[in-house]
Amino acid sequence: MASQLPLIPRLTFTIFEPISLIAGSLPAIFFPQWFASQQTPFPHQPDPSSVLVTRQLGNMYLLAFLIGTAVLHTTSEVKVVRAYLWALWAADITHVWFTCAALGWEGSVRAGEWNGMTWGNVGATLALNMMRNAYFLGWFGDDLAADKDLKKGKKEL
C-alpha cells in the first residue's frame, strides 16, 4: 500500500514516522529515568512507578512502529490504510492534549521554553497530524491504484 500513497505522505508515514517511533521507544525502554524526567521542562527525579510506565510507553511506541510498518507495507486496501491513519489522527490529538494538560496553559504557550522532548511531543505530533489532515483532504492528490487493480483493469479492456 505504501506505493499507493502520494509521494509526500508516503515518505512521511513510511519513513519519517517509523523513525520517530523508534527514536521514542528506545530511550523510553533503555533510559527510562532520563526519558521520564524530560517529559516536562520542570526538573524532577522519576519514582519507580514512573520508570515502569515509561518503559511501557516505550513498548507501545515499538508496537505502533511494528503495526504501522505491517499495515503500510502489506495491505493493498486503501480503506485499511485510511482507517489506520484515522486512528493515528485521533491519537495525535489526545497525545498533544495530555502533554499540554501536564504543561498547563503557561507552559503550553511558551514554546521558546520547551525542551526537545516537548517539541517532539507537541511539535512533531502536530506536524504529523497536519500531514494526515492534508492527506485526508486530498491536498497531495488521489491515491494511486493498486497493482492488482491495474492488472484487473487491463483484463477488462
Write the layout of secondary structure elements.
Layout: H1 7-30, H2 32-37, H3 48-74, H4 78-109, H5 116-136, H6 147-156
Helix pairs in contact: 1-3, 1-5, 4-5
**Tally of strands:** 0
Q: Mean of residue pLDDT?
A: 90
Give the termini distance in whole angstroms.
24 Å
Specify Rg, calculated over alpha carbons.
18 Å
SSE topology string: HHHHHH
Structural class by SSE content: mainly alpha
State the helical fraction.
over 70%
Shape: globular
In words, what does this structure look like?
The protein is mainly α and 157 residues long. It has one domain. The protein has six helices and no strands. Helix 1 packs antiparallel against helix 3 and helix 4 packs across helix 5. InterPro entries: DUF7704. Keywords: Membrane, Transmembrane, Transmembrane helix. This is DUF7704 domain-containing protein.
Give keywords.
DUF7704; transmembrane; mainly alpha; 157 residues; DUF7704 domain-containing protein; 6 helices; transmembrane helix
What is the structure about, briefly put?
The chain has 157 residues and is mainly alpha-helical. It has helices at 7-30, 32-37, 48-74, 78-109, 116-136, 147-156.
